[in-house]
Write a structure and sequence with these properties.
The structure is a single chain. This protein has 284 residues and is of the alpha/beta class. The chain has helices at 30-42, 64-81, 95-103, 120-128, 153-170, 190-198, 200-204, 218-224, 233-246, 256-280; strands at residues 9-15, 47-51, 88-91, 108-111, 132-135, 178-181, 209-212, 250-253. Helices cover 45% and strands 13% of the residues. Helix 5 (153-170) links the parallel strand 5 and strand 6. Helix 1 packs across helix 2. The radius of gyration is 18 Å and the shape is globular.
Length: 284
Amino acid sequence: MRDLARSPLLMGILNVTPDSFSDGGAFADVDRAVTHAMDMIDQGADIIDIGGESTRPGAARVSAAEQLQRVLPVLEMLKARLPAQYPISIDTTSAEVAAGAIRQGATMINDVSAATEDAAMLSLAADAGLPLVMMHMQGEPGTMQDHPQYTDVVAEVKAYLLARAEAAMAAGVKAENIIIDPGIGFGKTKQHNLHLIANLQEFVDTPYAVLLGASRKRFMGSICDVGDSRELLGATCATTALATSAGVAILRVHDIKHNRQARDVALALKDCSGETLLARRPPG
């Protein structure tokens, strides 16, 4: 995996599910899923994140056996086509699914429950020595958008993620393998999401790498007057640029090509700003 401190890595979303919020059913077929993953890699994806269970609001739960049936054939075919070191993430809250994916070649775990749904996830990540993404979610997917409430959403989400990071380290996960995710759209209103994105620096200033997953999220549709989440490419690129400027380490997105452009321009502007400030400093 590239140096997380240099620029945000692009994590391509590969949902092999029939019911994900934006692309459900589009890549449930193994060949189509692998073709899409290879397309994302050709466009500049640094990581592919494979998930076999939808976590959209109101989604039904999927057994570990069904998740494995969905993701393992895709993993097997991808690993046969990719360089051995190419990072593949498994998006699951089940340690059983994560373990099966790791045996098939996954090199990263993305857990939207922050390892609270299955406590074995922490020891699995520690024993495997793999990066672990831990996300904040208020409630659970079936009910998380019913009535999300916070007194101070930034402070509360940050405190939760720091506590989960401490729990991970207590279980043996190395600090450099911990990635925190504020969980945009997971038990948050539009205003909660906006406050979190506007204050990404609060999370970047912690000792842990930060992942942002705002791609095609519905709260942006209400801002842009767009009903189809697939039409939120421009809105997503705006969050990519902001996250890049803030120093976020990983951007989890659907549309690699355009978000790569947004990232690269934002990074160039960030670098230019730093050079300008250095040039203005008086000698000595």
